[in-house]
UniProtKB/TrEMBL annotation:
The KARI N-terminal Rossmann domain, residue ranges: 24-220
Pathway: Amino-acid biosynthesis; L-isoleucine biosynthesis; L-isoleucine from 2-oxobutanoate: step 2/4; Amino-acid biosynthesis; L-valine biosynthesis; L-valine from pyruvate: step 2/4
UniProt cofactor(s): Mg(2+)
PANTHER family: KETOL-ACID REDUCTOISOMERASE, MITOCHONDRIAL (PTHR21371:SF1)
A single GO BP: isoleucine biosynthetic process
Record: residues binding Mg(2+) 2: 229
UniProt-recorded name of the protein: Acetohydroxy-acid isomeroreductase
Length: 486
């Protein structure tokens, strides 16, 4: 769905290539409408205290302060997260911290934010604990994919909604806090209404999104959300970025660059000037920032990388849609119950990260090879999502905005390998599986083809791509502050 019908909030029509979409512009000025929009909700139970669980519980509690709506956190018995939840004001004494199933049983809106594989294993028990008519809330469509794979669905009689922030949990909380003095600063979110037996599901979803601080809420479906989200994690948001910088670091070293220069031309260029340029001015601005021989090299790199990247994104999409990728996450969860997942930060390039960060000061230039490969991969994901029928808001948020306004700033502060080793298990598994595939595609297909002339039709198609119009419209709703990751 790309339209939103609300009896509480004033929505807007946004013109996008080929049509229009209905969106809601958020802001703290909408907080007084939340009690009415959360029709029939007096208690919200947030199950889980991972990055999303913590951020959403805190944002919901702060936004609903004084409304009479209680936000509680439910954790499994013996959870190591309990002390941190207590330190943040969720306690047994004030009735806002409890056992996962008891919180689920006593909540009118139950937000399921435990890990994907754990949710796949425990959802029947949780569903069995729900009070009649309680609203089921998700921030990811993974569970729908799991249910569909076995011919099942959510329990009848329960509204089922999703609010899916287009950024990591830390970003959801940080930009919300920065927005205390800047109305509307936060992370964009999509909503989906999967079941609406009482007719109030859309307004509840919008209220949840507004309460999280989302400056821009757009509509999707649970099925479209999990496909674009999981594919994006494995492609331009994490997997492709990791494969890209590993391949480029080796390429520049073989060209004769010292380790620091190779790191700066690969990782620093992507997470720094390339990300900032796209965030501020769009994809064509990266090419426009280069001139002469550098722009010609960008064109050759773009031409060499687009098709190999597009092939991989399409392959990932097929495996997500068919259920293979979801099953691999569940299988891995069983396997990793007895052994930890190893880190990927052991390759030679990451040993130079601290030295590179210490040298920061003078701006790092946009390397044309790095820029060409990165922009080609991002555009390949955009084009594949468009070909699969995703709405433009979903395309630009999942392929561009989430990358340049949430993930890449964190990668710049911490480094890419750190982000991969500290993201959700679903994203981490996907990155470890597909990152090497992207690395091989760059090393074996794209970089050897740099000697070939640029494909003028590919560059013309890039410059005329409708995503630029869609991103420009969406960027008008961008928060007026950049995320602080210091």
């Amino acid at each position: 769905m790309t339209t939103i019908n609300s009896s509480i909030f004033q929505t807007e029509t946004m013109t996008v290539p080929g049509g229009t979409e209905t969106i809601l512009r958020g802001g703290r000025d909408l907080f007084p409408l939340l009690p009415e929009a959360f029709h029939g909700i007096s208690t919200i139970g947030v199950l889980g205290w991972g990055p999303q669980g913590k951020a959403q519980a805190l944002n919901l509690r702060d936004s609903l302060a004084g409304t009479g709506i209680t936000v509680s956190v439910g954790l499994r018995p013996g959870s190591t997260s309990a002390d941190d939840a207590r330190a943040n004001g969720f306690t047994e004494e004030n009735g806002t911290l409890g056992d996962l199933l008891s919180v689920a049983a006593n909540s009118d809106l139950v937000v399921l934010l435990i890990a994907d594989a754990a949710l796949a294993a425990q959802h029947e028990t949780i569903f069995g604990a729900l009070k009649p008519g309680a609203t089921i809330g998700l921030s990811h469509g993974f569970l729908l994919g799991h249910l569909q794979a076995s011919g099942r669905d959510f329990p009848a009689g329960h509204p089922v909604i999703a609010v899916c922030p287009k950024g990591m949990g830390d970003s959801v909380r940080r930009l919300y806090q920065q927005g205390a003095t800047v109305n509307g600063a936060g992370i964009n979110a999509s909503i989906a209404v999967h079941a609406d037996p009482d007719g109030h599901a859309t307004d509840r979803a919008l209220a949840w999104s507004v309460a999280l601080g989302s400056p821009y809420t757009f509509a999707t479906t649970l099925s479209a959300e999990y496909r674009s989200d999981i594919v994006g994690e494995r492609a331009i948001l994490l997997g492709a970025v990791h494969g890209l910088v590993e391949a480029l670091y080796r390429y520049f070293r073989l060209e004769g660059a010292d380790p620091i220069a190779a790191y700066e031309r690969s990782t620093e260029a992507v997470t720094g000037p390339i990300a900032r340029t796209i965030s501020a001015a769009g994809l064509p601005a990266v090419r426009a920032a280069l001139a002469g021989a550098d722009q010609e090299l960008f064109d050759r790199a773009y031409s060499a990388a687009y098709l190999p990247a597009r092939d991989l994104v399409a392959e990932i999409y097929d495996e997500v849609a068919e259920g293979t990728e979801l099953r691999s996450v569940i299988l891995a969860d069983q396997r990793l119950a007895t052994r930890p997942m190893t880190a990927i930060a052991g390759s030679e390039m990451w040993s130079h990260g601290a030295e590179v960060h210490a040298r920061r000061g003078a701006p790092v230039a946009i390397d044309p090879v790095t820029a060409g490969l990165f922009v080609a991969t991002m555009t390949a994901q955009v084009d594949e999502f468009a070909a699969r029928g995703h709405a433009w808001s979903e395309i630009v948020n999942e392929s561009i905005i989430e990358a340049v306004d949430s993930l890449l700033p964190y990668m710049h502060a911490r480094d890419v390998a750190f982000m991969v080793d500290n993201c959700s298990r679903t994203a981490r598994l996907g990155t470890r599986r597909w990152g090497p595939r992207f690395q091989a595609a760059y090393e074996q297909l794209a970089l050897p083809a740099l000697a070939e002339p640029a494909d003028s039709k590919a560059i013309e198609s890039f410059l005329k791509n409708p995503v630029h119009e869609a991103l420009k419209v969406a960027a008008e709703l961008r928060p007026s502050v950049d995320i602080s990751v210091s």
